[in-house]
Amino acid sequence: MEPDAPVAPEELPAVAPQLRELRRAAGLTLEAAAARAGLSPAHLSRLETGRRQPSLPMLLSLARVYGTTVSTLLGEAPPTPDPVIRARSSGAREAGGWTYWQAGGSGRGMQALHVLVPHGGRQDELVRVHPGEEWLHVLTGRLRLTLGEAEHVLDRGDSAHFDSLTPHRIGAATRAGAEMLFVHTLLQSATADLCLGGARR
């Protein structure tokens, strides 16, 4: 059982309303959120109802789980994000052989990426299943998209929009690889999770 936080109520603003709202916005049950944060469901419930105040380590853990900041958990108004993402500011990142450029703002309900998909990379073997929706649009080359038992080949200019709970796999269908614009609604999208890796088939 987690110890009560050694924080007097007057030392931190009330966080209960934000905790429950952010958990629901992330599509997590009390049990799932508690497991990710390393808490018991009962303790998280007490935090959400204001019967306990979280310690700073708990706030940090919950902020990571909900894909937000401690400032947001404390109810502080975040600065208005810049709506324009400049090409020079979106440095390339690589994960599993795929190359990603940020094409949308951080801290939002959607993440937009420009992705270079090489042919025959290890990402082709990954089957992904997770909450949310995905949309992709082929810029160059051809993509092979597997949704459940169905396989689709998408040419340049083709798009796909699907429920991410459907087991899915994405790979390049041309030896030169393919490029796509990719948008997903998963909130937990740290750099290591850009490609939304799941279990190998």
Indicate the multimeric state: single chain
Physical arrangement of strands within the biggest beta sheet: 1-2-3-9-4-7
**Poorly predicted ranges (pLDDT <50, ≥5 residues)?**
1-12, 187-201
**Separation of termini?**
37 Å
Average of the residue pLDDT scores: 80
Q: Please state the structural category.
A: alpha+beta
User: How many β-strands, per DSSP?
Assistant: 9
What's the tally of helices? 5
Series of secondary-structure elements, N-terminal to C-terminal: HHHHHEEEEEEEEE
Strand content: 15-25%
Helix content: 10-25%
Q: Measured on Cα atoms, how large is the radius of gyration?
A: 20 Å
Which overall shape is indicated by the principal axes computed on the Cα atoms? elongated
Largest sheet: 6 strands, antiparallel
Task: Please characterize this protein's 3D structure.
This protein has 201 residues and is an alpha+beta fold. It is built from 5 helices and 9 strands. The strands form 2 sheets. Strands 1-2-3-9-4-7 form a 6-stranded antiparallel beta sheet, with no helix packed on it. Helix 2 (30-37) crosses helix 3.
Features:
201 residues, disordered C terminus, disordered N terminus, alpha+beta, six-stranded antiparallel beta sheet
Topology of helices and strands:
Blueprint: H1 16-25, H2 30-37, H3 41-48, H4 56-65, H5 70-73, E1 93-95, E2 98-102, E3 111-117, E4 133-140, E5 143-147, E6 150-154, E7 159-163, E8 168-172, E9 178-184
Antiparallel strand pairs: 1-2, 2-3, 3-9, 4-7, 4-9, 5-6, 5-8
Helix pairs in contact: 2-3
